[in-house]
Structure formats: structure tokens, C-alpha cells
């Protein structure tokens, strides 16, 4: 089986990592400040002496997919002759497995004369704090106790649940690569494979990759599969371009910065577009984007009309009305009259509604357990328990504490929790 080109052409040295100079200087400075590294390497790359660099216990590399987060760590380990202990946090999730894999790597001696060891936790934002049985706590414990450098990568480390990691780490942001930078790398790959590739074809691949170099190289390998040695623009058009996956932050950015109505509406054709999530995010992002009260009012008016369409669709199941709702929610919100010139970067916040639901998830689960138990034993519907009986029980419990104790024994839920649920 042929070696994937993304591995075949992975940078072999720090200098070969494409256009992430600021991130490289920061990461190298941290290594040179806190650990042993070759003098020549530190003289070239370890020039920063900031206090936050010297005090950080770990480094968290952040950035969108395909910008070189994992590659830069591989190149660093090779450059300073460190053995790399790599673990994908999305695959190995529990505290026991994390400690087992990393602990074994740290205990065992190197057989190939390495100058040290470097731990890489790849994709830490793939961890789910509640479901993954102490995985996050295990990583924090390793950072606190390890005598070797620990580096992590994440696409989005700013989720509130990863705040303990951010507090311990130096967050280093890697920027999205430009179209020209991706094209230059694709040209080198074509040369290495002995293929003749039209520049416009490579630009088409780079454009659709949205700065994701890994995706661009994988696409190039796909277009040149089967021993082909020529790539033209017509080949790209015939096969079709990549339809990129977008985060909700990128979706909002595309909607608000769209220059015309159809451009905003086209966002709904992306496979990662979730219209229900979009409504939640748009509700809180409109006043962030439109500072003037009149513009905010117009945008909210159009979003509310779209919501009326959605309400009718859910009541009557007339899903043919959905395109009209999305036109109002996307194009209507984007194309407001006298729209100001928007700044290059807009700080969209995570919706408070979703944060509140996340924080109250366990409380709601316990309340539903209580409602289900009462419905089964009283032979009534859960909706009746929810609408009427919970209020009756709450009134009874205030006058007779034994009601709570009996429910606690039957359900196996702490009596204090039941009191709070009522």
C-alpha cells in the first residue's frame, strides 16, 4: 500500500514547517527555557524570554485542522533528538489508559540514544469531561508531575471545560495558511511525484481546502491516483471540489460578512450547517455584530419571522417552507440596510443558553428520573406528573419531610437532591 503523501512529505525539520514562525519561536523558547536542547537550536529559535513562557508547565497548540499543530511537534522532537511519546486523546480517553500509555513510555529507557522525551497529547478537545472517566484530570496530573515537556494540540481549546488546561499551559495559536502558501507546498509535492500540475488546478485545490494543508495534499493525491502524472483545471471540475466542514464560528462569519443575499443563503448548502444550532447562535451574535440599535432591530425582526416559519413547519410538517425560513435567517440577517463595514475579526461568544443546558444536564436527568418513577407507580402520564403532581409533592414536602425520605429510598437519590428538584 502506498504511503499517504501527507506522511511522505511531512516536514523533517523545524525550518520546513510552513509559515508558522511566531508559533515556532514561542514553542522553541519554552523548550530552551525549561529543558535541555541543542545550543545551535536554541540560538536560532529560542529567542523569546517572556515570563509567561518560562512559567508555563505545558504548551497547548491551538488552530484549525491542517495548519501543522502535530507536524510542528514531530519536527521539534526530531530537531532536538527527543523521543516522542504520542497519544491521541480522542482515542485513549480514560484516566487509567492515559496513565498506562504515558507512564510506560516515561518509565522505559530509550534504545536509540535520545537526549530526552517529549509527551504529545493530540486532539485534547476530543475529550468529554463527564463521559471520559477522569481523562482530563489524568492529563493535568501528568503535566503537574512530569519532568519532561508536555505539549497538547486542539482545534478549539476555548471551551469552558478546558479552562484547567489553559490555566496550566501556554496557549500558542497557529494561523490558517494562505492560498499562496498551500499552493507552494502542492507544487513541491507535484515535483516530488514527477507530476505536471497546472497552477490554476492547484489553486482550486488550495481554495477549497480553506487553509487546511492536510486536506489539500490528500485531495491532490486523490486527483493523481491511479498513476496519473498530469493534473488540469478540467480534471478538478470533472471530479468536483471539496465541500469543507465549517465550525459554527466560521458559519456565522460567512453569513455576516456575505456581500450579497445569495452568498449568505449558500451557507445552508454546506454539509456541516445545522439550522437549529444556527438559530441559537444567531440569537446571541446579532448584537455583537450590529452595534447600532436600528440594525439590531431589523436583524432580530427577520430572525423572528424565520422562527415563525419554523413553528408552522413543526406544527403542520410542511417542510417545503424551510427554504423560506432559511432565506430570512441567513440572507435577511446578513443583508440589512446601511450595514457597516465589519472588522476582520469578530469575537462570537458561545451561546449562554447552551452553557446553561450543559451545566444543568445532571439536574434535569435526575428530575426526569423522579418524574418517570412517579408516572409508573401512579399509573399516570409523565406529562401529568410534570404539569401538576410535582407542584403537589413540593407543597407536601414543605409540610412533611417524610415524603422526601420515602422518595429518596425508592429512587436511590440523595434526599437533599430530591428537595432541590421539587
Please tell me how large the radius of gyration is: 27 Å
Oligomeric state of the chains in view: single chain
By helix and strand content, what is the structural category? alpha/beta
Number of helices: 22
Major sheet, described briefly? 5 strands, parallel
**Kindly state the mean pLDDT as a whole number?**
85
Detail the poorly predicted runs: none
H/E order of the elements? HHHHEHEHEHEHEHEHHEHHHHHHHHHHH
Order the strands across the largest sheet as they lie in space: 2-3-4-1-5
Number of strands: 7
* Distance from first to last alpha carbon: 62 Å
Helix percent reads 55-70%
Strand content: 5-15%
Global morphology: globular
Task: Explain what this protein looks like in three dimensions.
The chain is an alpha/beta fold. About 55% of the residues lie in helices and about 10% in strands. The protein has 22 helices and seven strands. The mean pLDDT is about 85.
Short summary of the structure?
The chain is an alpha/beta fold and 422 residues long. Helices cover 57% and strands 8% of the residues.
Set out the fold topology:
Layout (H helix, E strand, L loop, with lengths): L4 H4 L12 H14 L4 H7 L5 H5 L2 E5 L6 H11 L2 E7 L6 H13 L8 E7 L12 H11 L4 E5 L8 H6 E5 L5 H14 L3 E2 L1 H11 L3 H11 L6 E2 L1 H7 L8 H9 L4 H5 L9 H15 L3 H24 L5 H13 L17 H8 L1 H18 L3 H18 L2 H10 L3 H7 L1
Parallel strand pairs: 1-4, 1-5, 2-3, 3-4, 6-7
Amino acid at each position: 500500500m502506498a504511503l499517504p503523501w501527507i506522511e511522505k512529505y511531512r516536514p523533517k525539520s523545524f525550518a520546513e514547517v510552513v509559515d508558522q514562525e511566531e508559533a515556532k519561536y514561542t514553542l522553541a523558547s519554552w523548550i530552551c527555557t525549561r529543558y535541555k536542547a541543542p545550543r545551535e537550536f536554541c540560538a536560532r529559535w529560542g529567542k523569546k524570554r517572556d515570563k509567561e513562557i518560562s512559567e508555563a508547565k505545558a504548551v497547548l497548540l491551538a488552530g484549525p485542522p491542517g495548519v501543522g499543530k502535530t507536524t510542528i511537534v514531530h519536527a521539534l522532537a526530531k530537531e532536538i533528538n527527543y523521543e516522542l511519546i504520542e497519544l491521541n486523546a480522542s482515542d485513549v480517553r480514560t484516566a487509567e489508559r492515559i496513565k498506562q500509555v504515558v507512564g510506560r513510555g516515561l518509565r522505559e529507557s530509550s534504545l536509540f540514544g535520545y537526549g530526552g522525551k517529549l509527551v504529545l497529547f493530540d486532539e485534547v478537545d476530543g475529550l468529554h469531561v463527564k463521559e471520559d472517566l477522569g481523562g482530563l484530570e489524568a492529563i493535568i496530573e501528568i503535566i503537574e508531575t512530569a519532568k519532561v515537556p508536555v505539549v497538547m494540540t486542539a482545534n478549539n481549546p476555548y471551551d469552558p471545560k478546558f479552562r484547567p488546561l489553559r490555566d496550566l499551559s501556554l496557549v500558542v495559536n497557529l494561523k490558517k495558511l494562505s492560498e499562496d502558501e498551500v499552493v507552494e507546498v502542492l507544487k513541491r509535492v507535484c515535483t516530488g511525484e514527477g507530476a505536471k500540475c497546472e497552477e490554476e488546478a492547484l489553486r482550486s485545490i488550495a481554495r477549497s481546502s480553506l487553509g487546511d494543508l492536510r486536506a489539500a495534499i490528500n485531495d491532490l493525491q486523490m486527483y493523481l491516483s491511479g498513476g496519473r502524472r498530469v493534473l488540469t483545471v478540467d480534471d478538478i471540475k470533472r471530479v468536483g471540489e471539496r465541500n469543507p466542514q465549517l465550525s459554527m464560528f466560521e458559519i456565522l462569519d460567512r453569513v455576516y460578512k456575505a456581500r450579497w443575499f445569495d452568498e449568505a443563503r449558500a451557507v445552508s448548502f454546506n454539509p456541516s450547517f445545522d439550522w437549529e444550532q444556527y438559530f441559537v447562535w444567531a440569537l446571541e451574535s446579532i448584537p455583537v455584530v450590529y452595534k447600532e440599535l436600528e440594525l439590531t432591530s431589523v436583524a432580530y425582526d427577520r430572525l423572528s419571522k424565520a422562527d415563525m416559519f419554523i413553528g408552522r413547519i413543526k406544527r403542520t410538517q410542511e417542510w417545503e417552507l424551510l427554504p423560506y425560513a432559511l432565506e430570512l435567517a441567513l440572507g435577511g440577517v446578513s443583508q440589512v440596510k446601511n450595514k457597516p463595514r465589519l472588522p476582520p475579526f469578530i469575537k462570537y461568544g458561545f451561546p449562554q443558553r447552551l452553557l446553561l443546558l450543559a451545566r444543568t444536564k445532571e439536574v434535569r436527568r435526575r428530575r426526569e428520573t423522579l418524574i418517570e418513577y412517579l408516572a409508573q407507580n401512579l399509573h399516570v402520564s409523565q406529562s401529568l406528573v410534570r404539569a401538576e403532581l410535582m407542584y403537589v409533592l413540593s407543597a407536601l414536602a414543605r409540610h412533611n419531610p417524610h415524603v422526601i425520605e420515602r422518595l429518596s429510598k425508592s429512587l436511590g437519590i440523595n434526599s437533599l437532591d430530591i428537595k432541590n428538584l421539587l
